[in-house]
Design brief:
The complex is a heterotrimer. By secondary structure, chain A is mainly α. Chain A has 13 helices and no strands. The longest helix of chain A is centred in the N-terminal third of the chain and has 31 residues. The N and C termini of chain A lie far apart (about 55 Å). Chain B folds into two domains: about 170 residues, Rossmann fold, CATH 3.40.50; about 80 residues, no CATH class. In chain B, a hairpin with a 2-residue loop joins strand 9 and strand 10. Chain B is globular. By secondary structure, chain C is mostly helical. Chain C is built from 14 helices and four strands. In chain C, a hairpin with a 2-residue loop joins strand 2 and strand 3. Helices cover about 70% and strands about 5% of the residues of chain C. A two-stranded antiparallel ribbon of chain C has the order 1-4. A two-stranded antiparallel ribbon of chain C has the order 2-3. Chain C has a domain of about 240 residues. The longest helix of chain C is centred in the C-terminal third of the chain and has 33 residues. The chains are: A mainly alpha, B alpha/beta, C mainly alpha. Chains in contact: A-B, A-C, B-C. Chains A and C meet through helix 4, helix 10 and helix 13 of A and helix 6, helix 11 and helix 13 of C.
Chain lengths: ~300, ~260, ~350
């Protein structure tokens, strides 16, 4: 039983990490209707920039962090200006394909700047189990996973407050509901989008640091996006709570399947199992857990 | 005038109610359509006119009531079954296939007449080719009839609004329907275009004997071309009869002019 | 003045419905086919045949398959490479386990296998649209590659699923020179391209485009959405499957499941976007473009390196080309989506329109 519990907790905690990446998608989708496939590439770029500044240029963390953040904000603003503004009012699927191109571009750019060799990254918390939990209850829970979950939790609360309490947040929700209407009551659309992309850059940086600290900073960080997609399908593209709950469900069921089902089919199922869950779910409820049902008008 | 004789009831709706969540679009509506007639549905904006057409050809499924087409009662239609039974329609906000030419759009109307498979299409010899040419001839008749020969090869996205409406009618006619549903076929047209469209609608009705149900806002047009009129307001039927009957109906006048409740 | 259709009147609908209604186009296409079949194999050297022409043809076929699904039927798929893998491994197993099966039949059956798998993974398209569907097709991408690695039967028990294809035999003759492989590939691709063109100008293609442009209206005129979408998935996967089999047999010779990556799927999607969505010609242009750009980049960075080394004793980093390639591809996709969403095929058409008016532009 304690083993199952351990697996479950590990799954839930890694689910939080998925949710963190999914959050970046939701943010941009809510505000501009863009499904930003390049989110994974942004995570990679963020982590590579931070690690590169630290290790190539020997900067202290407290200098490297704001610099990396600045780089992400600039990147976000540039994407909005150069890629998305010219594509306003295009079909969603066109925007999606554009962000696939964007992902390629950012990946190439990251490696051009910071090289292709993977680096290690430390955020000061080790991936070690809590000693006292192991001793007393014989349950291994990683300190790093808990740390990551706490950071993610704080980020979610901050974003929720940002959306609910600030002027910009309210404008954002108005834009999400109806671009035209928001524009007609004088909300500066492009300014709002620029802010959203900058915030998405910030979320990517946080995700990049946590994921980079756990798995190393390398090209494989871009695959975090692929982990987040089933979470989005499950949680709905427009819901922050959906991203969290979806992340937890995917994380937990994936880990459990990996441990209990994996050995029977030769392992390695984590690459696709989340997708199968998401798909099965989609067939029952196409708008996701927290998504809104749209009625086609003709 | 051809020999257009109004026949028996072909389509009947009985006690149909439709709601979206808590919003009632249609409440307990009953009416019928007779063979070869031109039946108009009128009412203010949001009265549920388009929802009515959507129920008839199965885009929406009503929560209550039955729809009887050609003597066969059903709880609800589905779009494919409706098309297969000979119901064609046009839409309020033109629903053409924007990436295709006028000719291809009208050709899609022949879809249900296709008997050859995709494999025969791939080889494009014999039966598939003959069938395509037969369909092309039929489609060209419709194109001649609606006088859109000159724009055959034009992508529909480039056409002005009035012509798009006409192409949509052509696509519906290409299916050789028994019942034609027209959702505001003259909306947004100038007087001249309206006159043309009226003529086409009447010609279709007379030459092919097609039964027509149409939604229209222009009262002049409705009174001129329809045999009977149904009036809706807030999803309820408030009037039904010949144009003359409806014109004198107090409830109808109130709905249109507004009345202090 | 040479390129005009003036004076060419169509007196029958059959004449009006030809693939190339303008006489000059017909002559040009016949000339091109003649050159491709009768001149190229004698003139082109081994490098051109094996490293450029054969892959361009094979990728054209895969892009054609994806174009049928995405460009014509409007259903985005990110699992193209996986359907190619199904074709490659199906062909390998058919050849291995059914003795004396002629090569053309192997290819057809491999395509049929891929079509069946494609239709299964197309099932979600009945409920979901747009990028939800795109994400669902990722499941195909990951699951198929995983299954091909995990179940050694597919690769006849080789380690990590690597297969080395059998010799290509046609009517008892082994095709082993690049020219022979090229001719065989060209024949297959030409026939399938013709079949695709035929389908796309027929009721099948119109039904696809109708579903793409407005599915509600398509259903109302009696186009069965479910059957049409699944058919699009099946036909598309058939083309990808045959392309995958040729990829293994005529191009690489040795393939492994892990070679059919998501990255390959993306590249084929790029061919479709850059070449032109909903265009048969575009699939060929896009494939040629995506195959040639890295070669061009490689050549130019090597040249630049040579100049830098001799002049400044300084050389470019080795990974520059591959990173530059990523950036160029990504940048081009964005560029095309913004500037010319109909891709090279539209540019080609615009060029022809200009030529039609030349030399009197008004």
């Amino acid at each position: 039983m304690s083993f199952f519990f351990e697996v479950l907790v590990a799954g839930l905690l890694s689910g939080v990490m998925y949710a963190l990446v999914a959050l970046g998608f939701v943010l941009i989708f809510k505000a501009s209707g863009v499904f930003n496939f390049a989110q994974g590439a942004m995570v990679f770029f963020a982590a590579a920039t931070y690690a590169g500044l630290q290790q190539e240029h020997h900067l202290a963390a407290w200098i490297a962090l704001p610099l990396a953040l600045a780089a992400m904000v600039v990147l976000g603003l540039a994407i909005e200006r150069v890629v998305l503004r010219p594509l306003v009012n295009q079909p969603q699927i066109t925007l999606f394909m554009a962000t696939i191109g964007l992902a390629f571009f950012i990946e190439g750019m990251s490696q051009m700047f910071w090289g292709s060799t993977p680096r290690g990254l430390s955020v000061g918390v080790e991936d070690q189990p809590f000693q006292w939990l192991s001793d007393r209850y014989n349950v291994n829970v990683s300190q790093f996973d808990v740390f990551a979950a706490v950071i993610s939790g704080i980020l979610v609360v901050l974003l929720a407050l940002f959306f609910q309490r600030t002027r910009i947040g309210r404008a954002l929700r108005a834009v999400a509901d109806d671009h035209q209407a928001a524009l007609s009551v004088g909300i500066p659309l492009q300014y709002i989008w620029a802010i959203v992309w900058a915030v998405a850059g910030f979320v990517a940086l946080v995700a990049g640091l946590l994921w980079g600290a756990r798995n190393g900073v390398g090209f494989s960080l871009t695959f975090t996006a692929l982990k987040a997609l089933p979470v989005l399908i499950l949680g709905g593209f427009e819901s922050i709570p959906g991203a969290i709950v979806g992340g937890l469900i995917i994380g937990a069921s994936e880990k459990i399947a990996e441990v209990y089902l994996g050995p029977h089919v030769g392992g390695g199922i984590e690459g696709w199992f989340a997708y199968v869950i998401a798909l099965a779910f989609l067939l029952v409820r196409p708008e996701g857990l927290f998504g809104e049902r749209h009625i086609d008008r003709v | 005038m051809g020999e257009r004789r109004i026949g028996d009831v072909v389509l009947a709706l009985e006690h149909v109610s439709l709601a979206f969540g808590g919003v009632k679009a249609l409440t307990d509506i009953s009416f019928d359509v007779r063979e070869h007639e031109v039946r108009a549905i009128i009412g203010p904006n949001g009265a549920g006119k388009s929802s009515m057409l959507n129920v008839i050809n199965g885009v929406y499924r009503p929560q209550q009531g039955t729809i009887t087409f050609r003597g066969e009662p059903r709880r609800g239609m589905d779009p494919h079954a409706a098309a297969a039974m000979g119901i064609a329609r046009t839409f309020q906000n033109i629903a053409l296939f924007r990436g295709m030419t006028v000719l291809d759009n009208v050709m899609t109307g022949r879809n249900l007449k296709i008997r050859t498979s995709f494999l025969e299409h791939a080889i494009w010899w014999g039966r598939a080719r003959r069938e395509e040419l037969d369909n092309r001839r039929k489609v060209e008749e419709v194109i001649d009839f609606l006088e859109i020969q000159h724009i055959r090869k034009t992508p529909v996205g480039r056409l002005p609004y009035g012509l798009q409406k006409r192409v949509e009618l052509a696509r519906a006619l290409a299916a050789e329907p028994e019942l034609l549903l027209l959702d505001e076929p003259m909306a947004g047209m100038n007087v001249e275009e309206k006159q043309d469209m009226c003529r086409f609608v009447l010609d279709v009705n007379e030459q092919y004997g097609t039964t027509i149900v149409l939604i229209e806002h222009d009262m002049g047009v409705v009174m001129d071309i329809s045999d009977r009129v149904v009036v809706l307001d807030y999803g309820r039927k408030i009037g039904d009869g010949t144009p003359g009957d409806v014109r004198g109906n107090q409830a109808v006048i109130d709905a249109y002019l507004g009345v202090a409740h | 003045m040479l390129y005009r259709e003036a004076g060419q009147f169509k007196t029958t609908y059959a004449a009006d419905q030809q693939i190339f209604p303008i006489r000059q186009d017909r002559i040009a296409v016949l000339a091109l086919v003649f050159v491709a079949f009768a001149v190229v194999p004698w003139v082109a050297n081994q490098y051109w045949l094996s490293a450029i022409l054969i892959p361009v043809l094979i990728f054209s076929l895969a892009a054609l398959g994806l174009n049928i699904l995405t460009g014509y039927a409007g259903q985005l798929s990110l699992g193209t490479a996986a359907f190619m893998a199904v074709g490659a491994f199906a062909a390998y197993n058919l050849d291995l386990r059914v003795h004396g099966l002629p090569l053309p039949l192997v290819l057809v059956l491999a395509g049929v296998f891929a079509a069946a798998v494609g239709a299964v993974f197309g099932l979600p398209s009945l409920r979901i649209k747009g990028f939800y569907l795109a994400v669902a097709t990722l499941a195909a991408q990951f699951f198929i590659v995983w299954a091909l690695v995990k179940f050694p039967w597919f690769s006849n028990d080789s380690s990590s699923g690597v297969i080395t294809t059998q010799k290509m035999r046609l009517f008892g003759k082994v095709l082993d020179t690049p020219a022979q492989k090229y001719l065989f590939t060209l024949t297959v691709v030409a026939l399938l391209a013709l079949a695709a063109k035929n389908m796309m100008r027929s009721p099948t293609g119109r039904a696809f485009m109708a579903v793409r442009d407005m599915d509600v209206a398509a259903a109302v005129i009696g186009i069965p959405l479910m059957r049409t979408k699944l058919l699009a998935f099946a036909i598309s996967s058939f083309y990808c499957g045959v392309a995958g089999a040729l990829y293994a047999y005529a191009y690489l010779g040795t393939v492994e499941p892990e070679g059919f990556t998501l990255d390959l799927s993306f590249r084929i999607l790029f061919m479709v976007i850059i070449g032109g969505m909903g265009s048969i010609l575009g699939s060929f242009l896009g494939a040629a473009f995506i195959v040639l750009v890295p070669i061009g980049l490689n050549v130019s960075t090597q040249w630049l390196n040579g100049v830098l080394q001799s002049g400044l004793q300084w050389s470019l980093p080795g990974s520059l080309t591959s990173n530059l390639e990523l950036m160029v591809f990504g940048g081009l996709i964005i560029f095309f989506l913004i500037v010319e969403p109909h891709g090279l095929a539209r540019l080609w058409q615009v060029g022809k329109e200009k030529l039609r008016l030349w030399p009197f532009p008004h």
